[in-house]
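pls design
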């Protein structure tokens, strides 16, 4: 919606006049100049003295309008005046040398919206200072009722059909031919049309019609040009007093292109509001509603000439909210309405229609119930997903626990032998850097068994160590035999990479002494002199991961015994 101004007449009770002001009828000034008649045909004047008035408003831009009646003798001007907003003086334009109504005496646009106080001081020697009205743009949060609301011809709520044309840019809209229609929805008790009579167009008078709320049209005259100049701010027609509420104005031109066109410059709504109430008492349809206390009687005309009468007990709230599509980029509000009725409606019908009126409860779904249902459904889905996830993890854990690996081959070293403490670490003695290192040895079984065999068969073996005794050799995960072909051992002995850097343990005995068969623990303990300590390699508990189909993830697995600190 475009910016709408509030017009405060000089007779408004909210204006505080000092002494020295007199109320003057505008009738004696109606024929002065070509800017129309004084607003609402009233003026306030200061003659032969000085006086002030103040007015507090909630808005931003503003302008003081009156009848300019200035005489200048040399450098002396009579009358003179000043305009102040919140104590700040508003600059004035040069005075006009002729008498004109609806003349802007001072104006401003650079004040922020809010509550402000306007003060006008006028000083007159002999020429009267004439104040007519004050217009301002209300603040967005201002709730103004019972005011004169000025609606420009460019307001987006006005709906023009294709028969309307612009005149003088944004100055006015005109309908040069018959049949052009405009419409507007407004809230108030009446509306006044102000136009412009252009001297440059045909001068003959013509006519047009207006209708309110779909009622019978009223014909009014569109005056032709007079005085040899264009006439501005001309009152074209004013409706009678209407019930306070929402109404629809529809205007149709009846002129010809050879006559003066119907022109709209602005409209003024009487007893208008800046915010239309949620309920209205406007009569825009064929139904008549009468309210008394908490009982409402609805009388409806039925097809065939009958009428129906319904009595509603309880409180009723009505809301008017509808919008008609726009034409040429403009839109208007219509007068359709909807009501929230009580739970029971009983009625009687008169006439020959035999129709009974009943009404039942109509209630939509609760917003809280909808939100609760949506949240509950989401929680249920999350719980199901969590249960499925936990079940899947449990199945994976059970499958991993079912996989078993063979324990380390328990090999007890010969009696009287023990690891030397000269080695910094058991892993360094074997050329191994950590308990989890895996060496790529193809399909060989018993990595250290092969190294021991090569150490005994080749005196020039590069695999030497500073330790005085050997550790038992580990087995593969299958826990099977040690033997490997000497050709493959020779191939590994000369290989480069990690296996060529491994130092094999030396022994005073042959390799066969290191590779003892699996003997019973009791026999070994019986042969070992006391107080020797016997250590048995137990299952580490580590489970090798397997694929889902049960196959191992790697084709070759080399196991190392646990590391111990000499002591």
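designed seq:
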């Amino acid at each position: 919606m475009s910016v709408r101004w509030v017009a405060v007449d000089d007779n408004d009770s909210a204006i505080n006049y000092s002494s020295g002001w007199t109320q003057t009828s505008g009738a004696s000034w109606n024929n002065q100049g070509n800017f129309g008649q004084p607003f609402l045909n009233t003026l306030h004047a200061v003659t032969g003295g000085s006086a002030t008035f103040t007015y507090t408003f909630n808005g931003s831009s503003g302008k003081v309008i009156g009848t300019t009646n200035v005489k200048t003798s040399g450098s002396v001007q009579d009358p003179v005046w000043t305009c102040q907003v919140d104590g700040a003086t508003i600059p004035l334009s040069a005075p006009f040398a002729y008498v004109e109504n609806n003349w802007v005496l001072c104006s401003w646009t650079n004040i922020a919206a809010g509550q402000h106080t306007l003060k006008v001081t006028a000083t007159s020697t002999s020429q009267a200072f004439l104040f007519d009205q004050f217009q301002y743009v209300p603040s967005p949060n201002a709730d103004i009722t019972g005011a004169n609301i000025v609606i420009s011809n460019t307001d987006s709520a006005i709906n023009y059909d294709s028969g309307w044309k612009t005149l003088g840019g944004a100055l006015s809209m005109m309908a040069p031919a018959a049949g052009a229609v405009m419409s507007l929805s407004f809230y108030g008790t009446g509306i006044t049309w102000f136009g412009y009579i252009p001297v440059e167009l045909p001068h003959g008078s013509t006519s047009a019609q207006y209708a309110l709320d779909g009622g019978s049209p009223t014909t009014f005259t569109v005056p032709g040009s007079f005085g040899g100049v264009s006439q501005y701010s001309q009152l074209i027609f004013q409706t009678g007093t209407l019930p306070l509420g929402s109404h629809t104005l529809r205007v149709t031109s009846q002129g010809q292109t050879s006559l003066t066109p119907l022109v709209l410059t602005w409209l003024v709504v009487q007893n208008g509001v800046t915010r239309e109430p949620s309920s209205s008492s406007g009569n825009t349809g064929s139904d008549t509603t009468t309210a008394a206390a908490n009982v409402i009687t609805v009388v409806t005309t039925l097809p065939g000439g009958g009428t129906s009468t319904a009595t509603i007990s309880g409180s009723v709230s009505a809301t008017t909210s509808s919008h008609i599509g726009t034409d040429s980029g403009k839109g208007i509000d219509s007068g359709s309405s909807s009501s929230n009725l009580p739970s029971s409606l009983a009625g009687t019908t008169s006439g020959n229609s035999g129709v009974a009126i009943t009404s039942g409860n109509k209630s939509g779904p609760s917003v809280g119930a909808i939100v609760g249902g949506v949240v509950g459904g989401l929680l249920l889905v999350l719980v199901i997903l969590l249960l499925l996830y936990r079940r899947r993890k449990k199945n994976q854990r059970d499958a991993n626990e079912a996989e078993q690996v063979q324990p380390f081959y328990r090999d007890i070293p010969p009696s009287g032998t023990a690891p030397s403490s000269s080695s910094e670490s058991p892993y360094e003695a074997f050329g191994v850097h950590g308990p989890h290192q895996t060496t790529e040895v193809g399909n060989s079984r018993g990595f250290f068994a092969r190294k021991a065999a090569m150490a005994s068969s080749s005196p020039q073996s590069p695999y030497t160590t500073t330790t005085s005794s050997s550790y038992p050799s580990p087995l593969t995960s299958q826990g099977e035999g040690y033997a490997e072909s000497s050709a493959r051992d020779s191939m590994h002995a000369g290989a480069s990479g990690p296996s060529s850097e491994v130092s094999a343990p030396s022994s005073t005995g042959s390799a066969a002494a290191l590779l003892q068969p699996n003997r019973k623990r009791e026999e070994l303990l019986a042969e070992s002199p006391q107080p020797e300590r016997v250590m048995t390699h137990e299952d580490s508990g580590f489970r090798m991961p397997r694929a889902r189909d049960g196959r191992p993830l790697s084709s070759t697995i080399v196991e190392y015994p646990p590391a111990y600190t000499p002591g």
